[in-house]
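Bit of a strange request maybe. I'm writing a small parser for structure token strings and I need a real example to test against, not something I typed by hand. Could someone generate the tokens for this chain?
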Amino acid sequence: MIRPLRAARIAAAALVFSLAAATVHAERWGDQGLGVMLGNPTGFSYKIFLDERLALDAAFGVNQNELDAHASLLFHDFNLLRRSPSFASLTANADVPVYIGIGPRVLFEDDHELGIRLPVGFSIFPHRSPWEVFAEVAPVIRLTPESGGDFDFAIGVRYYIAAIRPRAN
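Reply from user aminoacidic:
Good idea to test on real output. This should exercise your parser:
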């Protein structure tokens, strides 16, 4: 069993590494996506880019017949797969960031389970399209009612509304 303090240290190190590794790619700040996801949980998903690589993701759905809500701060690396020749055909027609994040999860059951999610995933943003396809896995560190671990996973799609930005002169 992972102790909460050790898990917090691991998560903090992962976030620092992600910030250092990610580079600015596209003008996504302010863009908002709304969609659905299937897996554990299954439900609705929302994402807003706070800058070109940092986003806030939230979801509300059903997890093993219980209501689930979570939010994650996600750090995207748009260049990791682009540097690999194995992904050249995919990255030629789409932006394919890898992301890592951290955030709270609440499972609304009899004892209201509270935990910390550590999602890791990738997205596909086809060029000249308002859509995102994503897949992620997320270890969950349960804090209440008793400590332990869970595992979330999901695939999904979001439709993006581009932010209104000032025109360049």
